[in-house]
Amino acid sequence: MPWKQVEPMNQRTEFVLKAIKTENFRELCREYGISTKTGYKWKERFLAHGLSGLGDLSRRPTSSPNSLDEAVVCEIVRLKERHRHWGPRKIRAVYERLHDPEVPSESSFKRVLERAGMVEPRRLRARQESGRLFSGRKAQAPNEVWTVDFKGWWHEAGGRCEPLTVRDEFSRYVLELRAMADARGQTVQVCFERLFEQHGVPGAIRSDNGAPFASDQGVLGLSRLSAWWVVLGIDLERGRPGCPQDNGGHERLHLDVERELRGAQLAERQAGFDEWRKTFNHQRPHEALGMKCPAEVYRPSDRKYEGTPEDLQYPGMESRKVAKWGSISWGHRNVFVSGALAGWSVGLESDQQGNHGVWFGRLLLGQLEERTLSFKRAARIAAKEGA
């Protein structure tokens, strides 16, 4: 039975002082309305600890059959030290790969890391509709869409660093993290030639609207680099100007690069980038992949790179070569189309009104108007199906 609710400590003190002297212990317990078992418990506590032993003790167990061994806790902390920016779920997946499948629960990993002060509370942001209006698709298999961008630059001992990043959208596999000599289209093209030789050709490449991937002056935003992609049969996808969330997965990759590589003391910059990319692809589990690593999902493209073709062919159309200054010859005059297409041929497709659609690969660039002998640019990207 419980003690009376009025001043329990005074009652316990009074009880144990009488219990030491009484000869009829059961009668004393009945007098205070408690069981004999409870009476002996308080008497033993008083004899062992004095008056301090009469207070209520915590109900929390002093031990747990499911508590983690010290070696397990140390291993969790060690893995977190190696991967400071990975959360408990990823640390648990790495632990499971390194040890037996009887791995502690995710909550246990989180509890250990919280107690060690190694977890930063996540800042929740209000969700906003991104209103995605880019021209592309959501990849359903490796190499359907590659994403590309330059990570914002920073200064370090070796000078300015602005790495180029290329990523497979579906598998999250980082195809390239390269410290470039410059950001010119020709330099980036050499990098992509190496990637195509290693991994094959993707179905589409998604980029922002900045150089060298696009040109704000060129028709359909074509730059020399993106025109080369079109020649290789690669579709172009771009986010809206000023909307990096349209390529959100790639921006998330840049956040990892920012946190883990900026300011790092790398003995040799590119070697450090290569090691980080290897860890990201082969060790870092990804929640969207069922905690698999990108390297477990990615595979090379079935479209092999066979070099740049000499020119484009347009069966059933009239073909015109774009001069080095960006014009084509039509109607005994030169009509400017785009300097980015210099050296390549475009196809002219006539309609019933006597106008001519101007095609570059699968892209409709605009129309040549018979009446004005001028070129009218297309307002948006349109692709010819089956071309």
Q: Order of strands side by side in the largest beta sheet?
A: 5-4-1-6-7
> What would you call the quaternary organization?
single chain
Distance between the termini: 88 Å
Uncertain stretches: 124-136
The first-level CATH class of the largest domain is given as Alpha Beta
Strand residue content: 15-25%
Task: Describe the sheet with the most strands.
Answer: 5 strands, mixed
Q: What is the domain tally?
A: 4
Average pLDDT: 82
Helix/strand-derived category reads: alpha+beta
What would CATH call the architecture of the largest domain? Answer: 2-Layer Sandwich
Name the shape in a single word.
rod-shaped
* CATH third-tier fold name of the largest domain: Nucleotidyltransferase, domain 5
Helical element count? 11
Strands, total number: 14
Give the SSE order as H and E letters. Answer: HHHHHHEEEEEHEHEHHHEEEEEEE
CATH superfamily of the largest domain: Ribonuclease H-like superfamily/Ribonuclease H
Helix content range: 25-40%
Cα Rg: 35 Å
